[in-house]
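Students often ask why inverse folding is considered easier than folding. One informal answer: many sequences map to the same fold, so there is more than one right answer. In these notes we will look at a single instance of the problem. The structure comes first.
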């Protein structure tokens, strides 16, 4: 008896199934690669945003610890640039600015300006390069640090 089965009980593949695995691979592989590329791009962008946040936090804190009001901008920029260099974002160096409220001044009297603060803001555009595809995305961050009144007089 030959009913299209082998002695092991398995059906033999017909001519209509020949090459179907190759066709499925050719159709599915680009979708899988695009998905992994998207995941890597989102992860890289999130890492860059975290680096920007760390840089503006370090900058605001450095500014709030500065005793001399004329040196605040220099200390803010230097602190942010160290984080950018360590975090792999050298294209963002020098992109953090500062707004100062009362550095070097006596502690404010409530309620007019309850705290003296240093606010650092950063913004730059990062590029994620995948060879054929380059994505550009802006990253921004801001952080406010209260001026340390006990930083030394």
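Output (designed amino acids):
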């Amino acid at each position: 008896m030959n009913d299209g089965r082998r002695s092991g009980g398995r059906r033999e593949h017909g001519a209509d199934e020949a090459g179907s695995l190759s066709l499925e691979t050719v159709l599915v592989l680009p979708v899988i690669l695009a998905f992994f590329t998207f995941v890597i791009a989102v992860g890289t962008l999130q890492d860059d945003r975290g680096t920007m946040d760390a840089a503006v936090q370090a900058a605001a804190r450095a500014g709030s610890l500065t005793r001399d009001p004329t040196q605040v901008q220099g200390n803010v920029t230097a602190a942010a640039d160290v984080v950018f260099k360590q975090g792999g974002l050298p294209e963002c160096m020098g992109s953090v600015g500062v707004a100062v409220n009362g550095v070097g001044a006596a502690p404010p009297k409530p309620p007019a300006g309850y705290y003296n603060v240093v606010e650092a803001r950063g913004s730059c555009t990062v590029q994620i390069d995948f060879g054929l595809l380059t994505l550009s995305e802006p990253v921004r961050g801001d952080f406010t640090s209260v001026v340390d009144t006990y930083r030394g007089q």
